[in-house]
Design a protein that fits this description.
This protein is of the alpha/beta class. The protein folds into two domains: 197 residues, NAD(P)-binding Rossmann-like Domain (Rossmann fold), CATH 3.40.50.720; 107 residues, Alpha-Beta Complex (UDP-galactose 4-epimerase, domain 1), CATH 3.90.25. 40% of the residues lie in helices and 17% in strands. It is built from ten helices and 14 strands. The strands form four sheets. The protein has a seven-stranded parallel β-sheet, sandwiched between helices. Helix 1 crosses helix 7 and helix 6 packs parallel to helix 8. It is globular. It starts with a strand and ends with a helix. It binds uridine-5'-diphosphate-4-deoxy-4-fluoro-alpha-D-galactose. The site of uridine-5'-diphosphate-4-deoxy-4-fluoro-alpha-D-galactose (UFG) has 22 residues, from helix 6 and strand 8. The site of uridine-5'-diphosphate-4-deoxy-4-fluoro-alpha-D-galactose has 22 residues, from helix 6 and strand 8.
Length: 332
């Protein structure tokens, strides 16, 4: 490989899976994480770990120079939508301002490639699905806005300076490393599949179904769930594409292009365990769109990446295997 890469947020859920995918593909990896939501143990021994903040330009500049970093994969950030509504400045600090500092440090150090964790939350409530990248961005919460602002900074920087970038707009990321090396470990989860597997292991008494009157076939919200290891591999493919196409940048959806309703997800969990979890029908959660499904034709056309784990049952199995591991660890 031509150079080592820096992974910010590499001790977190998606970042740690990206670190595994990069190491598996033969890359040298330096992780920068402040461990506010990540875990030191989630970073493999074979990666270099630096504890610190993305917004610390002096530290970042030193790390970039010392290791001769040639690309940054930027996962560090805050991701809880309702929290972004009550504490917007946290999101503009951790997602927008911190990214600005990181991008400037990258430019100063001459790092030519940048990959950014963006989100389908940039679209807000789409006019139609599947959602294409050229559809309007109208985020309905500060989380989506804070990520969109970073996309804009990258676009403007790439137009003016010697850096190209990919922003990957994630749909609903779920599952865990198939080999059991990492998974979603943060306490206080809000994501459906994580909550469902917590209900399986007895960490929760039931799963609430937030809204049964959506404009969807069964009335519950429909989402495009993507296996975290497929998403991680998309980043490795994007990195190779950036190196081969130094004049080009892309913003790409990352999903499978197929939606499942909340009830279909819970049915899948029940089928995997052969044991029904308790469902409670509840009212809508604020700010949830009916239907979010990616049109993934751009990423499929651009990268050689192909999903390897496009199977909701498999996603649930891997999420559950990791949840059981966490439960055992908590007991011992
Ligand atoms: N849901 C439930 N019960 C739960 C949790 C979720 O019924 O206990 C429902 C939600 O209402 C929604 C679906 O399950 O219909 C998925 O909800 P998640 O919280 O798992 O995920 P979101 O679709 O809300 O969020 C995802 C990403 C965000 C991103 C957003 C874009 O996690 O980062 O998509 O809208 F901002």
């Amino acid at each position: 490989k031509p150079f080592p890469v820096l992974v910010t947020g590499g001790a977190g859920y998606i970042g740690s899976h990206a670190v595994l995918a990069l190491l598996d593909a033969g890359w040298d990896v330096v992780v920068l994480d402040n461990l506010t939501t990540g875990f030191r143990w989630a970073v493999p021994e074979t990666a270099t770990f630096v504890e610190g903040d993305v917004s610390d330009m002096e530290l970042v500049g030193r790390v970039l120079g010392e290791h001769g970093i040639g690309a940054i994969l930027h996962f560090a950030g805050s991701i809880i939508v309702p929290e972004s509504v009550t504490d917007p400045l946290k999101y503009y600090r951790n997602n927008t301002a911190a990214s600005r500092a990181l991008i400037e440090a990258a430019i100063v150090a001459g790092v030519p490639h940048f990959i950014f964790s963006s989100t389908a939350a940039t679209y807000g409530i789409p006019d139609e699905v599947p959602i294409r990248e050229d559809m309007p961005n109208r985020p309905i919460n500060p989380y989506g806005q804070s990520k969109l602002m970073t996309e804009h900074m990258l676009r403007d920087v790439a137009a003016a300076l010697p850096m190209n970038f990919c922003a990957l707009r994630y749909f609903n990321v779920a599952g865990a490393d198939p080999a059991g090396r990492s998974g979603q470990s943060t306490a206080g989860a809000t994501h459906l599949i994580k909550i469902a597997v917590e209900a399986v292991t007895g960490k929760r008494p039931h799963v609430g179904v937030f809204g049964t009157d959506y404009a969807t076939p069964d009335g519950t919200g429909v989402r495009d769930y993507i296996h975290v290891s497929d998403l991680a591999e998309a980043h490795v493919a994007a990195l190779e594409w950036l190196i081969e196409n130094p004049q080009e940048s892309r913003i790409m959806n990352c999903g499978y292009g197929r939606g499942y309703s909340v009830l279909e997800v819970l049915d899948t969990v029940d089928r995997v365990t052969n044991n029904p979890i308790v469902r409670k029908l509840e009212t809508r959660r604020a700010g949830d769109p009916d239907l979010l499904v990616a049109d993934n034709s751009l990423i499929l056309k651009t990268l050689p990446w192909r999903p390897q784990r496009d199977d909701l049952g498999l996603i649930v199995q891997h999420a559950l295997a990791w949840e059981r591991k966490l439960a055992e660890r908590a007991e011992s």
